[in-house]
Amino acid sequence: MDHDLIIRNGNVVDGSGGASYRADIGISGTKIDEIGRVRGTGKREFDATGYTVTPGFIDGHTHMDAQVFWDPLGRPSCWHGVTTAIMGHCGFTLAPGSSDERALVVRNLERAEDISAEAMDKGITWSWDTFPEYLDAVDALPKGINYVANVGHSALRTSVMGERAFEEPGSDDDIRAMESALGRALQAGAIGFSTSLSNSHETSDNRPVASRLSTWEEVRRLVMAESKWGGVFQLAPGTFEDLEGLVEFYKRLEALAIESGVTTFVPALGAGGMALLPVLDEAAAQGGRLVGLTHSRGIISIVISFETRLPFDRLAEWQPLRSLPVSEQRDALRDASVRESLVAAAHRGDYGRSIGAEARPPNYNAMTVFLDPIGINPTVAEFAARRGVDPVEAIIDLALETDMKQLFVQPVSSLANDEDAIEILKHPRTVMTFSDAGAHVSQVADSIQTHFLSYWVRERQVFKLEEAVRMLTSVPASAWGFKDRGILREGFAADLNIFDPDHVGPNLPTVTADLPGGSKRLEQTAAGFLATVVNGSVLIEDGEPTGAVPGKLLRRGRDT
Length: 560
Hints:
Layout: E1 3-12, E2 21-28, E3 31-36, E4 42-47, E5 52-55, E6 57-59, E7 82-87, H1 102-110, H2 117-123, H3 131-140, E8 146-152, H4 153-161, H5 172-187, E9 192-196, H6 216-229, E10 232-236, H7 243-260, E11 264-267, H8 270-285, E12 290-294, E13 299-304, H9 319-322, H10 326-332, H11 336-348, E14 368-369, H12 380-387, H13 391-401, E15 408-414, H14 418-426, E16 430-432, H15 448-459, H16 465-472, H17 474-480, E17 496-499, E18 505-506, E19 510-512, E20 521-523, E21 526-527, E22 529-534, E23 537-541, E24 544-545
Parallel strand pairs: 1-4, 1-5, 6-7, 7-8, 8-9, 9-10, 10-11, 11-12, 12-16
Antiparallel strand pairs: 1-2, 2-3, 5-17, 13-15, 14-15, 17-22, 18-21, 19-20, 22-23, 23-24
Helix pairs in contact: 4-5, 5-6, 7-8, 8-14, 12-13, 15-16
């Protein structure tokens, strides 16, 4: 039997969690049609001797809703083995909403998710009013990877309420209109509904995003309406003064998951993630499906540099310098008197209030010098002590020594210790899938899949490769209900990765200015991949895009 593509002699880790085995894989069209000893010939063949062959990775929490319009490749996800990305989280979507209402939609996104308003203005041709029309627009785009879309609560509110969405709870009539729009979106193939109550989600004019003005009853009614059509629910919780308040909120969410029967996703990060684990078990015991979304690093961090942003940008003394081109900043920092003034200001300055992934006041005992994309990096305080200089001096010195390219990592929140991180990652009702790809593009590098394989599997040996691949493939496929992805099986979609487990891992990020309008973003590629295949076509080969755009919009009901 002849095939379009044959992958020969690979070490197959099929996503089930079972032991690996040596096999060939034959692909015809968009499907796997033979696994074993493939005797036919292929129009294209890979010799995967020494490589591992896995299903494509599924990323369950991204914000690619806008980027899909100007980036057919799907970066950075495509570099890290992701073949399917689920977008539209935390209530932030581009639809429903007409072109005349786009300013309201953009207001929800630009600060909360650090998606450039200029990039959205220049990179998107707004051709929809409704969510079904938005899905059709995405369907028609050239795409490197597959996408799945939630419908967002903030967009639902602004489409129904206009400016009132940022000022008041929805009335009974408003909620009924939102229920109707949600139903149309789900029937057109949206995977689910998402919302945010998080204090970290604000507009550029310092107001809560629209979903935060809703009452719990509004949220509950929308989830209960969703239960009529099917779909999932994702929520970003608010901020609580103590863990007891957070656990009480988790209990309310648990009750809604049980009452509605809707699979419900909630972040499982930090100390709150540890408190969530018993609630996940309690919900399951009562027939509910509450799932925690976690992260390979167990930590939310911001990548900062002179080329992008620094915590010092908020300080009046630093702003004249930071308004200059980077090359002129470099020249100015060679002046000892300028440095002395800036260092003093950095220590005494008022940094104001930060939300989300915005740069925090610097904590040099936690901020690290980003030298190794996989392992442990020295803190700025440690690095400064080695050189016998002030921490701010060390940051400036490192920038000058690297032509202003040195990156630093500033934590926002973290787990207490590795034991907690491991417990959350290993819990049977969590999914390691929280890259936030498409959002925070100048703040965060999105390499959780390759970091997981390189750090937790290869370096720490906490997870076996078969277990890790299962966590990146069939576990999210099951959680979101994909019927033919997440596992290597004859008749299933031909989404695959071929990589060297001894070398797979993220590269250090770089800064590029290729967003529509010229805005900057972080780009992070990966090492160790021979190829990534999407729907039977080779998307990435030896770290380079092939020019193929085989991705699809996957719709609930058709593909799940």
